Amino acid sequence: MIRLFLYHSDPEILTKMQREMAEYFRGVRHTFQITASLSYKGTLAYLQSQPVRDDIFFFDCGNQKEALQLAAALRERELYASWVYVGKNREALLRMLLLRPSAFLPDPAQTEHLCFILKRLDHYHQIQQKKLYFSFKCDGEWMRIPYDEISYFESNAKKVILRKENGGETYYFTAKLDDIEQELPSFFLRCHQSYLVNMHKIRSLDTKERTFLLFSGEEILISRRMYTEAKERYQNFL
User: Fold this and answer.
1) What's the rounded Cα separation, in Å, for the pair 178 and 193?
2) Using CA atoms, how far apart are residues 72 and 92, in angstroms rounded to an integer?
3) What is the distance between the alpha carbons of residues 228 and 236, in angstroms, rounded to a whole number?
4) Do 129 and 36 contact (CB within 8 A), yes or no?
5) What is residue 214's predicted lDDT score, i.e. its pLDDT?
6) What is the β-pairing status of strands 202-206 and 211-214?
7) Fewer CB atoms inside 10 A, N or C side of the chain?
8) What is the pLDDT of residue 121?
9) Cα separation, 87 vs 77, whole angstroms
10) Which residue has the higher pLDDT, 182 or 83?
11) Among 57, 40, 49, CA closest to 99
């Protein structure tokens, strides 16, 4: 899933960009979500009022002051999102390089250039999602949770339970813990047939009870069979 946000003050240009982007992602058979706005104030409020979940932002930079504020608001909330400078003023673009635009689109009507940008940034974010996020389907909706917010995975019957840190949200979805284990970064530890734990969330190892004690106060069982390897991996992690 790739998420895009488009801001442009010209409704015709905005509609055309939406149409071209949708055609591109359908062509490459990649799921996508597009949010669009004609309003600078609405876009700024969007950036300031909620966690940034979109991957790529296209900002109308015809008004340089407004564009600077949008790019600065984005960078304050999210370092990994990409944003594209949409406008013809190259001198203004140079003044905004500190806010790290990922691409420069002088003419949104240039479909070939737009698709080139989408292809490059889509590839980049697919790699980033594998590095930074766990993606899964829950209740018919694709979810994406940062790895550093996940406390542990638990297998229960035919479902997997994802528990977020500090008693946060809990998600139930259909999967195999063995398959999930293959996707996760090295700081996730399989310590039991039913548990995969984020070692960043472990406060201590109780050797007597063979459990990991989490900062949340929860306890994760370590199986007798996996205990020696789990203990060694955890000590090496420390």
Assistant:
1) 9
2) 15
3) 12
4) no
5) 94
6) antiparallel
7) C
8) 95
9) 23
10) 83
11) 57
- Output the pTM of the full model: 0.65
User: What are φ and ψ of residue 139, in 5° steps?
Assistant: 55, 40
Q: Report the interhelical angle of 64-77 vs 40-49 (nearest 10°).
A: 10
Q: Which residue has the tokens 């149409």?
A: 19
How far apart are alpha carbons 87 and 93 in whole angstroms?
9
Q: pLDDT band for position 53 (50/70/90)? A: confident
Of 4-8, 129-133, 170-174, 188-192, minimum mean pLDDT range: 129-133
Length of the chain: 238
Other beta carbons within 10 angstroms of residue 205's beta carbon come to: 19
The confidence band for 10, taking pLDDT boundaries of 50, 70 and 90, is very high
pLDDT at 29: 83
For Cα atoms 31, 79, 34, give the angle at the middle one, nearest 5 degrees.
Answer: 25
Which pair of structure tokens corresponds to residue 59?
């900002």
- The encoded tokens of residue 164 equal 């977020």
β-bridge mates for residue 202, sequence order? 214
